[in-house]
Amino acid sequence: MRLYIKYMVSLRCKMMVEEELNKLGIHYAIVELGMVDILETITKEQHEQFKVNLLKSGLELLDDKKSILIEKIKNVITEMIYHSDELPKVNYSDYISEKLGYDYTYLANTFSEVSGITIQHFIINHKIEKVKELLLYDELNLTEISYKLHYSSVAHLSNQFKKVTGLSPSFYKNLKQKRMNNLENM
User: Fold this and answer.
1) What interhelical angle do 119-137 and 169-184 show, nearest 10?
2) 53, 92, 52: which is closest to 76 by C-alpha?
3) HSE-up of 69 (CA within 13 Å, CB side)?
4) Pairing mode, if any, of strands 2-6 and 28-32?
5) Could you tell me if 59 and 99 lie in one domain?
6) How far apart are CA 146 and CA 139, in angstroms?
7) Residue 30 host element (H or E)
8) What is the mean pLDDT of residues 68-96?
């Protein structure tokens, strides 16, 4: 039996889900981002208690097919941007379609209908969050970041960053340095 969980995006979430399953005595094969494979049929009471316990932690057990599909799309994108060293060399649309086994047009229309934004905007927003993270770590320069995240150029990355955040990447990076200096002077 497979269960789908909304907002499950980190290793900490996975550990929390595993803990809740263990508390309820539910045996599982695997816990992935957004998904759990249960080894046996669970009772209605276990299902409801698991649902309640997840809600207390900010997670949500999904029941309807569209919500499950949207969560799968988000998990593929999250995995692609945050948890893999290399972004796919193919188009994101081809990658997502191949990973989920659905036509991309169907995925895109369903995602937009339920989420209110396009898959492309969702990807852009998450790529910009990744850029922010990499800028704050200060291990890569902007050229290396644009290459790592498959931007066509540093200018393209900078324009997209400014469009989403209202700031240039260099101004954003300088804000971090100013905050650190202010903390040191306290």
Assistant:
1) 40
2) 92
3) 20
4) unpaired
5) no
6) 13
7) strand 28-32
8) 83
User: Do 72 and 99 lie in a common domain?
Assistant: yes
Range of the domain at 42: 1-63
| Structure-token match 């922010």, residue found | 132
Please choose, from the candidates 136, 107, 4, 154, the residue with its C-alpha nearest in 3D space to the C-alpha of residue 64.
Answer: 4
Helical ranges in the chain per DSSP H: 11-23, 44-56, 65-82, 92-100, 104-115, 119-137, 142-148, 154-165, 169-184
Q: How far is CA 12 from CA 4, 33, 59, 153, in A?
A: 17, 10, 12, 34
- Report the number of distinct structural domains present in the chain: 3
Tell me the residue type at 23: K
* Tokens (6 digits) for 112: 């937009």
In this prediction the pTM is: 0.70
115-164 tens-digit pLDDT: 889 999 999 999 999 999 998 888 889 999 998 888 889 999 999 999 99
Distance CA 172, CA 182 (A): 16
